[in-house]
Amino acid sequence: MSGKIQVGYLVSYDYELLKNSLPTIYKESDTIFLAIDKNRKTWKGDAIDINPDFFDWIKTFDVDNKIVLFEEEFYVPTLTTMQCEVRERKMLAEKMGIGNWLIQIDADEYFLDFKSFVAFLRSKNHFLKNPEKTPVQISPFLINLYKRLDEGLLFVEKSSKQLLATNFPSYKVGRQTRQRIIYFRGLILHECLSRTREELEFKLDNWGHNVDINKKQFLEKWETVNQDNYKSMENFFYLEPEKWKKLAFVKGTTIKEVEENLDLSKAVPSDFYILKKNFGQWFKFLFR
User: Fold this and answer.
1) pLDDT in tens, 162-182
2) Residue 238: CB partners within 8 Å, gap ≥ 6?
3) What single-letter DSSP state applies at residue 157?
4) pTM for this one?
5) What are the extents of the domains in the chain?
6) DSSP-derived 3-state class of residue 127
């Protein structure tokens, strides 16, 4: 059956974060696929250890039998980390099934209102009739969590787009297909860099962008910034620093507390901004 809400995760070193992410999307999803390298390798080829207790948790959590384990060899020694990522995303999308909404979420991404996102996708089901001829990407917005402190979190003040769903998965870089984008006024908490130093270093060494980052320079700034000095600092993005101009602070030691304490009115893009962006994308791809 076509037209399903198919959700896929690439499961790796941060698999424990799925315990935060899965509950936010479970109810409204038709099927959830967990792609795991069967040799327990990262895209760089480093070994990862997934505790058997995690799979016990999955069985207990999956009360509606929606979760499918998809285990293949996703690490290829002759490919770069990004090439391995794109290859795995395409393999996962094929497993999920063309003709459905293919939503690939990372373990550190937590939807704030997945039900509204699904309703939005359903309103665009006409794009599923001939996806190869009408490829689109659907983009909500991320609140990027930058660093954990004793009493809360530093996060990127301005939300950023996230290309999350597509009807035709011709991925080029990560989840980017370079096709028309349709923006959705919804938010996701992204536990991107708010980890321990050890966890962050492992991520930077093993994700798809590992060769694009000046790791030493980035970590020096990440180590330095704190609740006392963040207002006097700027340019925090790991690729092009100026894309994350300023940080803000929110109290909370758990994701639930952070969600409750965030002032979302400043993070959500305006209706006019969304309208303008969607018109621009429609016009850009009108004659292609």
Assistant:
1) 999 999 999 999 999 999 999
2) 193, 204, 209, 213, 218
3) S
4) 0.91
5) 5-284
6) helix
